[in-house]
Design a protein that fits this description.
single chain, Rossmann fold, 3-stranded antiparallel β-sheet, transport, ABC_transporter-like_CS, Iron complex transport system ATP-binding protein, ATP hydrolysis activity, ABC_transporter-like_ATP-bd
């Protein structure tokens, strides 16, 4: 990690009509850094990701990408910097998996330009990186949830972003693919990308994160390096489960995670 943060949240308040979800959130994300966002259902993780993507306006405070609010970036310029892997993705048309990944190139080639050989190669390379090149010509809507998830990660990579925002990227994946995605996140950090991902699995955060941010009822409960932050006491407070219940489960997690 180095230099100025690519992305910053400053005293952020955000939410929906008549319903402020996030309160006083501060976060900085730098090059080569992986930050995991953890919190129970409804704690505001997706709201936070949507706000920093410029899909929801802040109620108060600021979001800055390279010092500039998302609303002041053109969508194409923003997409050249920030790749997004959404939680669920429904498409109405019978696009192939390769088409979906090629859409990730739109911010670089222009929405109505014909993709070049390089764009197609890049799309195939991203599918191959995620181990799903064999799905390239399959119709996206016929893929399983996990296969779709891997295609969406490939699409975000095809944008060649400097920041990757992932909403529960391992949620519908089998054990092997979860590990593959985590390894991939690790590799992206090595390439200098900044990754912000939400997860319901603290052991995943322990495995890949440089920092974790624990979000409870829209407020930061704790933030810091995973090992000292993901304590039994913090996990118990975060998920509302007694320490006596979480303690043995957390202590018994596999040593490799
Ligand atoms: N479009 C919306 N309009 C109004 N309230 C919403 C909307 N989307 C989410 N909320 C509410 O905002 C709160 C935070 O939701 P959010 O989706 O950010 O939580 P989350 O931490 O991502 O949850 P999960 O782990 O279940 O995905 C919840 O109370 C939710 O009901």
């Amino acid at each position: 990690m180095s230099g100025e943060p690519l992305l910053r949240l400053l005293e952020l308040e955000a939410g929906y009509a008549g319903h402020t979800v996030l309160h006083g959130i501060d976060l900085a994300l730098s090059r080569g850094e992986v930050v995991c966002l953890l919190g129970p259902n409804g704690s505001g993780k997706t709201t936070l990701l949507r706000t920093l993507l410029g899909l929801l306006p802040p109620r108060a405070g600021r979001v800055e990408l390279l010092g500039v609010a998302p609303a002041r970036w053109s969508r194409a310029a923003f997409a050249r910097h920030v790749g997004h892997v959404p939680q669920a993705h429904e498409v109405q048309f019978a696009f192939s998996a390769e088409d979906i990944v090629l859409m990730g190139r739109a911010s670089r080639v222009g929405l109505f330009s014909t993709p070049s050989r390089h764009d197609r190669d890049m799309a195939m390379q991203c599918l191959a990186t995620l181990g799903v090149a064999h799905l390239a010509s399959r119709v996206y809507t016929t893929l399983s949830g996990g296969e779709r998830q891997l295609v969406l990660i490939a699409r975000a990579l095809a944008q060649e972003p400097s920041i990757l925002v992932m909403d529960e990227p391992t949620a519908s994946l089998d054990f092997g693919n979860q590990l593959r995605v985590l390894e991939h996140v690790d590799r992206l950090r090595g390439l200098g990308l900044a990754v912000l991902m939400s997860t319901h699995q603290p052991e995943h955060a322990l495995r890949v994160a440089d920092r974790v941010l624990l979000l409870a009822q829209g407020r930061v409960l704790a933030e810091g390096p995973p090992e000292p932050t993901l304590t039994v006491a913090n996990l118990a407070a975060l998920y509302g489960v007694p320490e006596a219940v979480i303690g043995p489960v957390w202590a018994a997690r596999p040593p490799s995670t």
